[in-house]
Specification:
The complex is a heterotrimer of chains A (348), B (169) and C (157).
Chain A: H1 3-40, H2 56-65, H3 77-94, E1 103-106, E2 109-112, H4 121-142, H5 146-169, H6 171-177, H7 182-188, E3 192-193, E4 196-197, H8 200-203, H9 205-218, H10 230-233, H11 243-268, H12 284-310, H13 318-346
Antiparallel strand pairs in A: 1-2, 3-4
Chain B: H1 2-22, H2 26-46, H3 50-74, H4 88-111, H5 123-129, H6 131-139, H7 144-166
Helix pairs in contact in B: 1-2, 2-3, 5-6
Chain C: H1 10-14, H2 16-30, E1 54-56, H3 71-75, E2 81-87, E3 95-103, H4 112-116, E4 122-124, E5 139-140, H5 142-154
Antiparallel strand pairs in C: 1-4, 2-3, 3-5
Classes of the chains: A mainly alpha (348), B mainly alpha (169), C alpha+beta (157).
């Protein structure tokens, strides 16, 4: 076989593995969220289907699959059907540039454990994440329902407000690392300060805090899930969606969650880097696999954090959300850039 | 491969740009405009300008068009709003301008070489120094003056927004 | 009344210590005892005075205690009790019910019938599992009500 076909096959395998891992992550999250919610509220949560309730997502999926397909009479049919597909497509496409491991040496070939090594990786993620809002906004408009429309409008305004803070909060990192490539950002975090790994959380604590908060708004999780807000808007933009179209939103939301957890890990927690492992003599193949494992563990820690926060904090009011985004997060992010610049000038 | 992608992106961009004008529904128009921007970003990627492509999507498709859609969704776009206008003057002027535009386009493509000038930033050079770095080095040296003017303008806009938001009710 | 907003110190205004405290509170509950009763395996113990399914009591000779006085049917706010009286075959009373039906779908389990009954014949038991699949099954006839009686004696809650 020519090298072109081998490369193509490798890329296909990577895509399939990542897609499978993401879908598996979605299923894991569906059960972890519900059982975690139960445990945090001194309940048990769903534990009947399979061991430890593990097949609950499959049961839910089958149930939803056999529900009636429904299109509201006054809806804009094409956009109503296209919106969930677009949402889930964007959610999966965003993950493409996340590096989930270091290079893997296999059969004399170096395989980069990442689907696409784009030299503007971070911007790619922001570009696609900012497109994801259309899946919500269009759904809100196309289903011709006042709750949906309100949800879509809220989502649009919220996404724009928090994307600014999200983008500005990582500029400090970009200033330190001098690159937009996600691999370079991870490699820059593999150094040490004495015994402390030089992870960006220690370099940019304020930036991390802003990024974390803005992430909750970006993935519509609870302190900022204004576009769903079941007490006021039923479930906002999803009101008119049932059956598999609902599943698509459900899936897309969790994939977004996984992507942003992975992004937090890559940007602030050293990605696949395992601290203090360089001194040990480990077979490179084993090391690469261990690093993939470390990445998965870190991502799951953050996924759990999202669940934990969801069942701890109440929802913001809408004006509080806007005021917090523009008057607190944005100035703090700009201050963070300024402070980073000052420190970089003072300590070369 | 690259030619095929160029043709696809170009054709979709032109077709959706036409649909922006033709479409009766304001929201659909806005969505076609987003599709146009997306295809333009694809063309930028084909020109090895990934940075500008990403900015195109983030700024135009991701931020500005969201605001457009936000406003347009609140409009009442019923059929009754459009009835009862003949627009004879506008239509005749439109035809004249289209003819003039096509003449201009034709004369330029026939007389001037389409490829244009070859600048210092070829694909190889960009790959060597890095996309963002190449962009930044030009922006912050040759085009510093317009850049600063724009940034002052935007700063004024931000301060205005903050003042409006902070006003005591 | 004037609401006085408390003056927050700088640490309170950052909110982060409060957020951490909140997270600590919820994770504490993660490790606490769970209160879930896993129902089909683990039955709930009804409280004293719980009003469940009706029964008709029998006297020491095994006859139905009811004298068909219609007190319960009159007291019933949802009018779910239907009685048809006949002359009693026994000497110690004048009437007895040939037909005694309670529509449990209409019943609101208020216990008025129980209080109205002069003979202590109709009573509400502690049985709360009465799901079924047909409407007819919820109309409990005299025999069902008497059988509930025996079921009740056998079953320990």
């Amino acid at each position: 076989m020519s090298p072109f076909w081998i490369d193509l096959i490798i890329i296909l395998i990577k895509v399939i593995v990542v897609m499978g891992a993401l879908l598996g992550g979605v299923m894991m999250m569906a059960i972890v969220e519900r059982r975690g919610a139960g445990f945090l509220q001194e309940r048990l949560g769903p534990n009947r289907v399979g061991p430890w309730g593990f097949f609950q997502p499959i049961a839910d999926g089958i149930k939803l699959f056999f529900k009636e397909e429904f299109i509201p009479a006054q809806a804009h049919k094409l956009l109503y059907l296209a919106a969930p597909a677009f949402f889930v497509f964007i959610a999966f496409a965003t993950f493409a540039v996340i590096p989930f491991g270091d290079k893997l040496e296999l059969f004399g070939r170096t395989i980069q454990l990442q689907i696409a090594d784009v030299n503007i990786g971070i911007l790619y993620i922001f570009a696609f994440a900012s497109l994801g809002v259309y899946g919500i906004v269009i759904a809100g408009w196309a289903s011709n329902n006042k709750f949906s429309l309100m949800g879509g409008l809220r989502s649009a305004a919220q996404m724009i407000s928090y994307e600014v803070a999200l983008g500005l909060s990582i500029i400090g990192i970009l200033m330190v690392v001098h690159s937009l490539r996600l691999n370079d950002i991870i490699v820059a975090q593999t150094h040490y300060w004495g015994y402390l790994p030089r992870w960006n959380i220690f370099v940019q604590p304020l930036g991390f805090l802003i990024f974390l908060i803005a992430t909750f708004a970006e993935v519509n999780r609870i302190p900022f899930d204004l576009c769903e807000a079941e007490q006021e808007l039923v479930v906002g933009y999803q009101v008119e969606y049932g059956s598999m179209k609902f599943v698509m939103y459900y899936m897309g939301e969790y994939v977004n969650l996984v992507t942003f957890s992975a992004l937090i890990v890559v940007l602030f927690f050293g990605g696949w880097h395992i601290p203090w492992i360089e001194g040990l003599a480990i077979h490179p193949l084993l090391l690469a696999l261990l690093q993939v494992g470390a990445f998965v563990v870190k991502v799951f820690a953050f996924l759990w954090f999202f669940v934990w926060v969801r069942w701890t904090f109440p929802r913001f009011r809408y004006d509080q959300l806007m005021r917090f985004g523009w008057l607190v997060l944005l100035p703090l992010a700009i201050f963070n850039i300024f402070a980073t610049g000052v420190v970089m000038v003072l300590i070369p | 491969m690259e030619l095929a992608l160029f043709v696809i992106f170009g054709a979709v961009a032109v077709a959706s740009a036409i649909m922006v004008i033709v479409s009766r529904n304001a929201v659909v128009s806005a969505l076609f405009l987003i599709l146009t921007f997306f295809c333009l970003a694809g063309l930028y990627v084909l020109l090895n300008a990934q940075f500008i492509a990403a900015l195109q999507i983030i700024v135009y498709a991701g931020a500005i068009m969201v605001l457009f859609v936000f406003v347009v969704m609140l409009l009442r776009t019923g059929k009754e709003a459009r009835r009862g206008y003949r627009l004879i003057f506008q239509k005749s002027m439109g035809i004249i301008f289209v003819v003039l535009f096509l003449l201009l386009l034709g004369s330029i493509t026939l007389t001037v070489a389409v490829t244009g000038m070859r600048g210092p930033y070829t694909a190889e050079a960009v790959r060597h120094i890095g996309n963002t770095q190449a962009f930044a080095s030009v922006l912050f040296t040759d085009y510093l003056y317009p850049f600063e003017i724009i940034s002052v303008l935007l700063l004024a806009g931000i301060i205005g927004a903050v003042v409006l938001a902070k006003r005591k009710r | 009344m004037r609401v006085v907003t408390p003056k927050l110190s700088i640490i309170d205004r950052i909110y982060i210590p409060a957020l951490v405290k909140g997270l600590y509170t919820t994770i504490k509950h993660f490790f606490m005892r769970r209160f879930t009763q896993e129902y089909p395996e683990e039955k709930r113990k009804p409280f004293p005075g719980y009003r469940g399914l009706h029964r008709l009591n029998k006297d020491h000779l095994g006859r139905v205690k009811c004298v068909a006085c219609y007190m319960c049917a009159t007291a019933c706010p949802s009018q779910c009790i239907e009685i048809e009286a006949a002359e009693a075959p026994w000497k110690d009373r004048e009437k007895y019910p040939v037909k005694f039906e309670i529509n449990t779908l209409r019943c609101i389990f208020c216990g008025m019938c129980e209080e109205a009954c002069p003979e202590l014949s109709i009573q509400l038991t502690y049985i709360y599992e009465m799901a079924d699949v047909t409407r007819e099954a919820f109309v409990r006839r005299k025999d069902d009500l008497l059988a509930t009686n025996e079921f009740w004696v056998l079953k320990e809650y």
